[in-house]
Amino acid sequence: MHLAVIGTGYVGLVTGTCFADTGFRVTCVDIDEEKVRTLRTGTPTIYEAGLEGLLQRSVREHRLTFTTSLPDAAEMADVLFLALPTPPGADGSADLSYVLKVADDLGEYWAAQATRRYRVVVNKSTVPVGTADRVRAALEKHGLVAGEDFDVVSNPEFLREGVAVTDFMKPERVVVGTSSERAAEIMRSIYEPFVRQGNPILIMDERSSEMTKYAANSFLAMKVSFINEVANLCEYLGANVDEVRVGMGLDSRIGNKFLYPGLGFGGSCFPKDVQALKLTSDQMGYHFESLEAVLNVNKRQHDKLPGWVSDRFGADLSGHTFAVWGLAFKAKTDDIRESPAISVVKALVARGARVVAFDPEAIETTRRELGDAIEYAEGMYEALEGADALVICTEWHEFRRPDWDRMAEGLKNKIIFDGRNLYKPQKVADLGFDYLSVGRPHMIKETA
Ligand SMILES: NC(=O)c1ccc[n+]([C@@H]2O[C@H](COP(=O)([O-])OP(=O)(O)OC[C@H]3O[C@@H](n4cnc5c(N)ncnc54)[C@H](O)[C@@H]3O)[C@@H](O)[C@H]2O)c1
User: Fold this and answer.
1) Whether 393 is catalytic
2) How far is the CA of 146 from the centre of ligand 1 (A)?
3) What pTM, to 2 d.p., does this model score?
4) What's the pLDDT at 219?
C-alpha cells in the first residue's frame, strides 16, 4: 500500500516519517519548495525528539520521498492523509480553505484519469464537525462516486509536540471516523503496527470522530484554565498550589496530568480549537459557557507576568532590561505559535522594555516573528548580563538546575519572575533572590 501525506509540517512530517518507519512507501507533499528540498536531504525542518534518525533512515532506504507535486502523490497513493493547516479565520472559526482546495484538486485530477481506482482520503487536520461531508462533496463535484472511487475518513491526530514521535508510535488510542467498512478495514491495517500493545482503534461515525478531537482538546484546555484559577486564588489566600494540585490529582477521577499552573496554554492547537468549537456551538445556537470561560481565563493568565513586572518596575518600562528564558510555547519544541512567552515578550516591549531572550530551540522561529524587536542571547547566562530581572516563560530542562552564582553575578537585581514554577520558593529566597511564581507564596525581601 502506498501512502501520501499532504502537508509536511509538525503533524505531516511526523506522520509520514513514522508510517515509513514501519515499512510503508510514503510520499510527502508540501507547497513549500525550500522545506521539500531540505527534507529530501534527510534534514528535519522542525525540532522534534527522535525524528532525525527515523527520517534519515527512511529517506536513505527510499521508503520516504518528498515532492511539491500533488498530482504525483494523487497518482501513486492508495491512502492520502491531509495534514494541512486549519488556522483560525477572521471570525475565529477553522479556516478550511487549505483542506477543501486540496480535496478539489484531487477530485479534478482523479476525474481526468482514463481509469479509476479506489482511494481513501483521510482528514488528519483538526477540522470542524461536518468537514468529512464537505470533503466528500468536493470530490463528488468532479463526478467521482463515494464508496466506489473513494471514501473520506476522519482520523484526528492526538500527538503532542515535544514527544510527537513517541505519541505517534504508541498512541493511547486511534480514532477513525467512517461509515465505510472497506475504508475502516484499510485504516485498521495501516495502524495495526502501532497498537500492538492492545491500545484500541476506535471506529465511529465521521461526526463523532471530528467532535472527539475538539472535545478532548477543549477539556484539556479547561483543566489548564481551572488550575490557573485555583493558583491565582491560592496567591490571595496564602495557600500553595503545589500542595493543592498534588492533593487534587491523586483522586483518580481527576488525575494529575494537566494540573500545572503557569502562563496559560498556547501552541497551535488549544487556543484555536477551543475557539473553533465555541464558534461551532454558537452557530448551532448553543451557548457553550465553559468554553468562553476557558478562553477568558487564559487571556488573563497571559497578562500575569507582565503585570508582576510592572507592579515592581512601573507601567513604563523604558530604561529597563529583562532577561527572558524560554520562547517556545512549551519545552522540547521550537514552535512559538500562540506561545504565552511571546505574549509576555510583546507586552514588555510594548511598555518600553529592552528584552534579551534565550531559548534552546526557538530562537530562529521567534526571529522570524519578532525580528529585531528583541535581542537574542547565545546562552541562558549570556541573557542575564546587566538585566534588571529574569522572566521565565518556558519549562526547559536546562533551566531547572541553574548555576545560582552565575545568575547572581549576571543580573543587576536578584529578581526572578517565574511563570513555570521551576524552583522551590524558600530555596530561591534563601539564595537572596526575590522570587515570584504562580499560585505559591511570593518571596520578596523587605526593602527599607
Ligand atoms: N501541531 C500539533 O501539535 C497538532 C496536533 C494535532 C493536530 N494538529 C492539526 O494538524 C493540522 C496541521 O497542523 P501542523 O501543526 O502540522 O501545521 P503546520 O503549519 O506545521 O504544517 C502544515 C503544512 O502544510 C503545508 N501546506 C499548506 N498548504 C498546502 C498545500 N496546498 N499542499 C501541500 N502542503 C500544504 C504547509 O507548507 C506546512 O508545511 C492542523 O489542523 C492542526 O490543528 C496539530
Assistant:
1) no
2) 26
3) 0.94
4) 98
